[in-house]
């Protein structure tokens, strides 16, 4: 089961996905709201916290989650204070009842990753792409449009024709024809 804990939050935050199952995990921590209370509304424990990247809106709640659940974090930048365990491109990590492939997808930020489960076609895309074919900003420190385009292509190749759900860092999840939104994002990013 996948719950977006930030779905109705009216503050500047990323989405925060709670994935329950054999390994109860969070994807991103969010910011500016009481995520611990929202986690406890669904579950008593969290086994892992994955960070798609370390922009403040995705990590400000990390300390509260660590304290409340005695949980470690996984992310790409081993030097970040928010990352306890480094993941690398091509690693496999457990979320819920599935194994997700780690895809290093820089362009929005150098430490950005997407998590993709080939068995179910579910992808956590962070701020790489969003619903309706939009894509992550590249005007922030470490952002690069050409690199972002390559990362979108990499994600498109990794999912093939099997993408069933695209859970993004902001806005709504795409569960109807997510491949189309991914392809529009790739084209739009190239044109910019």
What is the CATH fold-level name? Answer: Metallo-beta-lactamase, Chain A
Number of domains: 1
**Rounded average pLDDT:** 96
Q: Helicity level, as a percent range?
A: 10-25%
The first-level CATH class is given as Alpha Beta
Spatial strand arrangement across the major sheet: 1-2-3-4-5-6
Query: What structural class should be given to the helix and strand makeup?
Result: alpha/beta
How many β-strand runs?
A: 11
The largest pleated sheet is described as:
6 strands, mixed
**End-to-end separation:** 36 Å
Order of helices and strands: EEEHEHHEEEEEEHEH
- Rg calc: 15 Å
Number of helices: 5
Strand content: 15-25%
What do we call the CATH homologous superfamily? Ribonuclease Z/Hydroxyacylglutathione hydrolase-like
Q: Outline, from the CA principal axes?
A: globular
What is the CATH-assigned architecture?
Answer: 4-Layer Sandwich
Query: pLDDT under 50 segments (min length 5)?
Result: none
Domain Metallo-beta-lactamase: 13-167
GO molecular function, one term: hydrolase activity
Protein name: MBL fold metallo-hydrolase
Organism: Halobellus rubicundus
What this model shows, in words?
There is one protein chain. By secondary structure, the protein is α/β, with parallel strands linked by helices. The protein has one domain (2-191): Ribonuclease Z/Hydroxyacylglutathione hydrolase-like (Metallo-beta-lactamase, Chain A), CATH 3.60.15. The protein contains 5 helices and 11 strands; from the N terminus they run E-E-E-H-E-H-H-E-E-E-E-E-E-H-E-H. It has a 6-stranded mixed β-sheet, with no helix packed on it. A 5-stranded mixed β-sheet has the order 7-8-9-10-11. Strand 7 and strand 8 form a beta hairpin. Helix 4 runs antiparallel to helix 5. The longest helix is centred in the C-terminal third of the chain and has 15 residues, at 145-159.
